[in-house]
């Protein structure tokens, strides 16, 4: 055991193969997974991508979500907009050949992640080669092993949409490596490569901006450079960022600091107050931000539980003076201070801390609005800093306690691998992911809403009554929880109404539709559904001869919405007949017959009214008419609920 780490450390020729193989095998079980979450937005249901090569110009000139929200004329669908065309360009280029076969897209993600790990190893080895010549390769191996095995990366790698994260970091690493080659070899061509790779990193995702700080700081701390050379290094990076932001502005406008939405699901800094929302105070904003920064650090050290969903109310607004945000603030400041104090004495630890903190700050909502409180995929770059710190700690431990260091490495990687592989299976499909994560994100509006929507999609395709009932029973509690957490969630109210209607619980359907119309008074679909629910509830009460006053009240409400509805007119005839108001009953049956002359059952119910009124001759005549119009009336009367 005591020699394991040293053997691993010293066999440099195997390092790249070990890293590539480990990274690939860790995610191999995702090859069985399907499309989930935002895969629909960026690939499966993105009309630009599905055009193949012909869609690439549209991808380059529109918001990244535009191909999905094609009927949204705004062009920008989330706070700040999204312009990350490179991954979608690759999807469009592959679509004519791969279609929608998820295995191949997962394979590409895994392959590029494995390549990224190999390139990260090379960069760290090169960066540390002058300060730590004997240990650079070993430190690079350990840090990259921790990176490859870390479960926090499952969202970025297991989710096909996460290709943007992988590409952004991959090209940032390639740009950094080109800069180092320029410094060490003084070949100007490397500056061109640095520019091209950094531009590609930006076009993959804006998180590449962190390297505008990380690359110059890395050079300053690990290479002796004069300022002229430093400026030469910075120029291609700055030029690449200018090219990206110019293209972004031309495509979607200057939206980086765009105005936040008034929807809790895309603006976490809104407080829910019943059916209204108000802006959070500054201290509440900072409280949430530093709570999330603390959560990121916790997940890097102890990555459990993991979830794709950190939407409100899973992450709640809280003051900066509350314990966790305040401790997190002190910790972040302490880490930055430590980095500053160690910048000369221990450049590796100082740089690792900066590599951890700078990307976290960029994705924390402190600099630009993210639209969500946090997300595990956002920590993709920052976790590299943590992994470098962990590698250095293990390196120091190995000097004094090699057996313990080997044990720590084996146990850590073993636990990480077990968690990672297990978490990959949660990403198998949307039902697996949503039903798993709702148990972690128990107070997330979106978690409950997403699971319910997925179950409702199954209901639409279900041809079995028992299965439909089971799915309805499973979906309803999640919709109700979502509305409890966020009473303004209109679509959930609409669906609750629909599911209750499907269950024939008309009273609950009516109550829900009425709540919806308080929020959106003009929705014609909901108004139509409410009219039908009034009608069916009133009819049901009338046929069962219970609470006839309420029956008439419901039917009159339905009548105000749609006076020409034949079934409603018939239902009013039934209700008034049950109340003994035979003339009104006959009047409504007459109207129903005029509206639907070929409906035999209306005549049967009208005959029943005449029979109760004592006019048996007219009742008999109406029954004869009913049989002529519909010869199947007899069997129907034997199997259906009796006429009123």
Q: How would you describe what is shown here?
A:
The protein is mainly α and 644 residues long. It has a domain at 445-639: Alpha Horseshoe (Serine Threonine Protein Phosphatase 5, Tetratricopeptide repeat). The chain contains 29 helices and 2 strands. A two-stranded antiparallel sheet has the order 1-2. A hairpin with a 2-residue loop joins strand 1 and strand 2 (276-279). Helix 2 runs antiparallel to helix 6, helix 6 packs antiparallel against helix 7 and helix 25 (566-578) runs antiparallel to helix 26 (582-595). The relative contact order is 0.07.
**What is the level-2 CATH architecture name of the domain at 445-639?**
Alpha Horseshoe
How much of the polypeptide forms β-strand, as a percent range?
A: under 5%
Using only CA atoms, what is the Rg?
32 Å
What top-tier CATH class of the domain at 445-639 fits best? Answer: Mainly Alpha
Number of strands: 2
Would you tell me which CATH topology of the domain at 445-639 applies? Answer: Serine Threonine Protein Phosphatase 5, Tetratricopeptide repeat
For the largest beta-sheet, the strand count, sense and barrel status come to:
2 strands, antiparallel
Estimated structural class: mainly alpha
Could you give the distance between the termini? 85 Å
Tell me, briefly, the overall form: elongated
Helix content: 55-70%
Q: Please, what is the CATH homologous superfamily of the domain at 445-639?
A: Tetratricopeptide repeat domain
DSSP helical segment count: 29
Overall average residue pLDDT? 93
């Amino acid at each position: 055991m005591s020699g394991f780490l040293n053997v691993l450390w010293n066999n440099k020729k195997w390092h790249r193969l070990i890293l590539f193989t480990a990274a690939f095998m860790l995610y191999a079980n995702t090859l069985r997974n399907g499309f989930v979450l935002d895969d629909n937005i960026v690939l499966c249901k993105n009309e630009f991508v599905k055009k193949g090569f012909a869609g690439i110009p549209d991808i380059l000139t529109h918001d990244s979500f535009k191909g999905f929200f094609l009927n949204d004329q705004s062009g920008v669908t989330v706070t700040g907009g999204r312009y990350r065309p490179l991954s979608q360009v690759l999807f469009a280029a592959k679509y004519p050949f791969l279609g929608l076969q998820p295995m191949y897209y997962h394979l590409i993600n895994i392959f590029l992640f494995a390549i990224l790990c190999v390139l990260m190893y090379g960069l760290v080895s090169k960066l540390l080669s002058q300060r730590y010549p004997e240990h650079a390769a070993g430190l690079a191996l350990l840090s990259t092993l921790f990176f490859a095995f870390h479960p926090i990366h499952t969202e970025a790698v297991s989710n096909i949409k996460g290709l943007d994260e992988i590409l952004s970091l991959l090209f940032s690493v390639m740009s950094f490596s080109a800069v180092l080659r320029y410094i060490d070899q003084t070949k100007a061509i490397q500056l061109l490569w640095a520019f091209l790779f950094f531009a590609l990193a930006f076009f993959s995702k804006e998180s590449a901006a962190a390297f505008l700080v990380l690359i110059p700081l890395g050079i300053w701390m690990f290479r002796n450079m004069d300022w002229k050379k430093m400026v030469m290094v910075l120029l291609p990076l700055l030029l690449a960022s200018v090219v990206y932001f110019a293209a972004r502005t031309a495509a979607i406008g200057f939206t980086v600091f765009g105005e936040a939405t008034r929807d809790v699901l895309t603006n976490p800094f809104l407080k829910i107050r019943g059916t209204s929302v108000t802006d959070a105070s500054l201290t509440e904003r900072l409280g949430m931000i530093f709570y999330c920064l603390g959560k990121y650090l916790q997940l890097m050290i102890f990555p459990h539980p993991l979830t794709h969903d950190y939407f409100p109310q899973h992450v709640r607004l809280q003051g900066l003076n509350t314990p966790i945000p305040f401790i997190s603030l002190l910790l972040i400041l302490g880490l930055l201070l430590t980095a500053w104090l160690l910048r000369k004495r221990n450049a590796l630890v100082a740089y690792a801390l900066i590599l951890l903190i700078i990307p976290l700050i960029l994705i924390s909502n402190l600099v630009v609005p993210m639209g969500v409180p946090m997300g595990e995929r956002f920590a993709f770059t920052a976790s590299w800093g943590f992994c470098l710190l962990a590698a250095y700690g293990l390196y120091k431990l190995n000097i004094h306690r090699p057996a313990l260091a080997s044990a720590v490495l084996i146990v850590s990687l073993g636990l990480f691998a077990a968690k990672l592989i297990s978490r990959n299976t949660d990403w198998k499909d949307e039902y697996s992911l949503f039903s798993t994560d709702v148990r972690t994100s128990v107070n997330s509006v979106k978690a409950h809403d997403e699971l319910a929507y997925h179950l409702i999609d199954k209901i639409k395709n279900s041809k079995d009554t028992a299965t439909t009932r089971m799915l309805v029973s499973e979906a309803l509690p999640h919709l109700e929880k979502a509305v409890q957490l966020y009473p303004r969630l209109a679509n959930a109210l609409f669906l609750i109404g629909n599911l209750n209607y499907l269950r024939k619980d008309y009273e609950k359907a009516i109550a829900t539709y009425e709540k919806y119309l308080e929020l959106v008074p003009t929705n014609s679909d909901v108004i139509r559904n409410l009219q039908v629910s009034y009608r069916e509830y009133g009819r049901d009460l009338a046929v069962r001869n219970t609470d006839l006053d309420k029956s008439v009240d419901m039917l009159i409400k339905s009548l105000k919405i749609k006076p020409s509805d034949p079934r409603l007119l018939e239902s009013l005839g039934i209700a008034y007949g049950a109340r003994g108001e035979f003339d009104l009953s006959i009047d409504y049956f007459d109207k129903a017959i005029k509206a639907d002359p070929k409906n035999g059952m209306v005549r049967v119910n009208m005959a029943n009214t005449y029979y109760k009124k004592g006019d048996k001759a007219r009742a008999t005549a109406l029954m004869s008419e009913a049989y002529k119009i519909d010869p199947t009336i007899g069997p129907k009367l034997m199997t259906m609920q009796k006429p009123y």
